[in-house]
Amino acid sequence: MLHREETPVAGKMMILEGSILFVPLLILPFYTQDIRLAWQFFVPAVVSILLGLFVCRMKCRKSSSSRMVVFAWLYGFLLAAIPFLLYGNVNPVQALFESVSGFTTTGLSVLNVEKTPHIFLFYRGFLQYVGGLGFVMMMLLFIQEKDSADLFQAEGHPDKLMPNIGKTAKVIALMYSFFLLIGTILYTVSGMPVFDSLVHSMCALSTGGFSNRLDSIGAYHSLLIEWITIFLMLIGTTNFSLLLLLFKGKIKEFCKASEIRFLAGLTLVCVPIMAFFLIKSGTAPGEGWELSFFNAFSALSTTGYSTCSYASWPQAALGLMILLMIIGGGIGSTAGGIKLGRVFKLLKKLINNIKKKMIPERTVILTYYHRGTDKELLEQPEVEEASTYAQSYLIIFIIGTIALTYFSGSTLLEGAFEFASSLGTVGLSIGLTGMETPTICLWIEIIGMILGRLEIFVLLQAFCKR
User: What is the dihedral of CA 217, 223, 227, 228, to 10 degrees?
Assistant: First the structure.
């Protein structure tokens, strides 16, 4: 329940989130057959804005940032589900599932996209685009609050790129928009329809994975489109502060960053191993390398685009995909998972502990973490934070996997794959998620997606911290 202290910012969030529902109406001049569906977006948008204006008039006092962020996201999930529900093709839980999957940039879906109107296809993609930026980031583009910095960090943005938060938000939005334009142009030039190009660019940059085709990127049968998608997935899974270096042309500093080097190392190690598993199972060598590179990177970046069905994949390759989904992308990016930075720190600590067993006791080992423009000594509190988060993540992953396996009647590997995809906000599916998925399984995945997007501790602070 909201305290009075939370109402002004809450009201502004409600107005912002209501305004988001107006955006899909912009495509109606191009797809006039969908005009009949306009009210399904217009009505909830107006109601949310009016409620927000009412809430803004209420007196307030200071509130916790984590509580405000959680309210913004939960309200956003419920509001965004209303158009899906009004459309009438899904029940309330399925509508909420599609909304949560969109805003958390997961990409799992219960819709038959081949029969979904253009306005809803655009809407799904735009939800992921907004979800990648975050509601607080969107609000800071227009409105500055006294506690903007706390709200910004509570939503999972650790880096301040410019002297103040407002300028930081504008720089991130500018980069995001620039790469959206570039992605749309590249897809269109490669032969993808303009509408599909826009939607896939929004979803690839947000590491979301919603597609207008049942077979995802594989439906286009184009190696060029796959490479463009890989480029956009790399942009989406990279920390915003590192993206700024790339944006400024500081390639050397970008390549020095620990996250980028770790990402490159994982790719160089995992792609050949996965290709070996696929080729050994009967896949042609060329196809095995192509499938391995694209799908491994899709899992690691937590984007969720695919070029094939995983039904015939060997279990070893699926196991490696699960591991990559658990690791995830960069801290502060739109990606999910434990995050590259945390896993890198834990591996460094593990290696140092092993070294200490083999060298004199008084020898001091210093470990540095490169952030691009500078490097910092890796201190014990940082390692403890990474360790605590990773342990919490793995405990939730184990519980969710067992629950999903039990209620879906699937194998343990299938349950682990699907829940790793949910918790990591990935969106790859082995076939458990769809229109026929039991309601209890959808709820398990919804909980996983929310925990993965809000990074566990934000929720704990919101509900437990006084």
Answer: -60
